[in-house]
Amino acid sequence: MKFDVVIAGGGFTGAYCARALGKMLGHAGEKRVAIISERNVLVFQPMLAEVAGSSLSVLDVVNPLRQFCRHVNVLQGSVQRIDWERRALVLDGGRFTRNHLVGFEHLVLALGSVTDLSRVPGMADYSWPMKTVADAIRLRAAVINRLEEANLIEDLDTRRRLLTFVIVGGGYTGVETAGQLLDLLLESKMLYANLREVPLRVVLVHSRAHLLEEIGERLGDYAQCVLEKRGMEVRLGTRVTEVTAGKVILDDGSAIEAHTVVSTVGNAPNPITMDLCQKLGIPTDKGRIRVEATMRVVGQTNLWAAGDGASVPWDDRGQLKNSPPTAQFALRQGRQLAENLVRAMRGEPLRPFKYRYMGQLATVGQRAAVAELFGFRFSGFIAWWMWRSIYLAKLPGTLRKLRVMMDWTFELFFRRDISVVQPPPEDILRSIHLEKGELLISEGDRCRGIFFVRRGALTRERSGEEPTTLGPDTIVDQEWSDERGRWTITLTAAESTDITVFRGRAFELLKTRLRLGLRDEPESKQIPTLISG
């Protein structure tokens, strides 16, 4: 596949850029433009907290990209790396479609940021992130399951930990998630016969002096006042230093005993984007690609960037600033970028990004919100009504608008749904059978697990070395991967072979235990030792 324009990223920036290109190019756009997204939906991020709080269904906040981006080619997959010399992306579309090359003439980087919780010990292991639709669904299920367990248990200390919920981060996502979870818990607790008289504890931990500092101290303090009046505990100027299975340790030496921790912090630059910047010598600004006002990357002709991962100059009424990483800027940058791409392909002059800032809004639960619009500040019920009206108008698709209107109307008269119907988690251990000559992994593939050869043999090939045979009881792990987490070997079945694959948290556990020195044991004893650990 090769396209005139490839858009890497299916968020607001990428989706609205593709949508605008499709409208301008018509049916010819399917051959000329491709958008690459890890999921085949556009997620309406401002309403994600309401999914976690069971106010909205997950289908209310997603829109299929193939319906939203007409007349462009939608490719679902994960970008593994960018081969700039060949003008191609290496795309992983799934188990059977890895290492697929997608060529381009112009490349748009709209991959945004990634979640990195590794800076706080235990945060990645024991906290629930809040960035994607899957995160919101899992968090909702976890909260309801905590109520179910607390209703069952009689030990007071265990019940107290089960009914304590800690939200880390006092920005938009943190405050809105905290308010929604508090609403869900207060309303749902009355349905549990053993919990009606048991107190809940919801703690919002924020490292700065005020909540929602982006919207101003006055409205941030109002949001804090509303949350505290409803029973939430707000800890300002406090950082989380460590998280365990039952405790959150703070930098002031105190600890909160809790089994549920929600992390709304930990954004980090996308490694794919940073890798390309390093190779091409592209300057960055705190992890964001430095671009011109036209959103063309500085020093490049066919490379463009916008959205959360780009530092886009913005003329705010005569004052030059960097565009904030918010949805209202992302979608407008996407539209302007599409226009500039068409102009570039036609050899016409480009237009700089211009936008009149409208304001910001955030809900705090119980039909209360804060808003700053065109310099005017609102709070309470009127701000909540404005929040719902504005975001309902901006929600893509008439069907979604109708669904959200119905769900919000039902919420006024009925309790929130506490059904949990998630499928069981995918097995972290999986067996693979290979016949002679079948490929297991290729050099350059992303390391996704650890392999244990139960029966048979594999042929190991590495550039510059003679092929070797790996027999039964052999472990294939990160020893044969590089610093970027990619395999440096190729493995093929030398005969009929059975393999066990360790993935997910089992994969991380195995990597950690192997680093601690279990290699000193015989290989045939390592796997049983690791499993028991």
Structure description:
With 533 residues, this protein is of the alpha/beta class. The chain folds into three domains: 2-114 and 268-357, 3-Layer(bba) Sandwich (FAD/NAD(P)-binding domain); 123-265 and 360-413, FAD/NAD(P)-binding domain (3-Layer(bba) Sandwich), CATH 3.50.50; 429-532, Jelly Rolls. Helix content is 32%, strand content 28%. The protein contains 15 helices and 35 strands. The strands form ten sheets. Strands 1, 2, 5, 6, 7, 8 and 21 form a seven-stranded mixed sheet that branches. A five-stranded parallel sheet has the order 10-17-11-12-13. Helix 1 packs parallel to helix 11 (327-346) and helix 6 packs antiparallel against helix 7. It is globular. Mean pLDDT is 89; it is low at 515-533.
What class, by secondary structure content?
alpha/beta
The rough form would be described as globular
Number of helices: 15
Radius of gyration equals: 25 Å
- The assembly state of the depicted protein chains is single chain
User: Roughly how much helix do the residues carry, as a percent range?
Assistant: 25-40%
CATH superfamily (homologous) name of the largest domain:
FAD/NAD(P)-binding domain
Query: How big a fraction of the residues is strand?
Result: 25-35%
- The count of domains is 3
In short:
The chain is of the alpha/beta class and 533 residues long. Helices cover 32% and strands 28% of the residues.
Key attributes of the depicted protein:
Jelly Rolls, 35 strands, alpha/beta, globular, seven-stranded mixed sheet, single chain, five-stranded parallel sheet, FAD/NAD(P)-binding domain, 533 residues, disordered C terminus, 15 helices
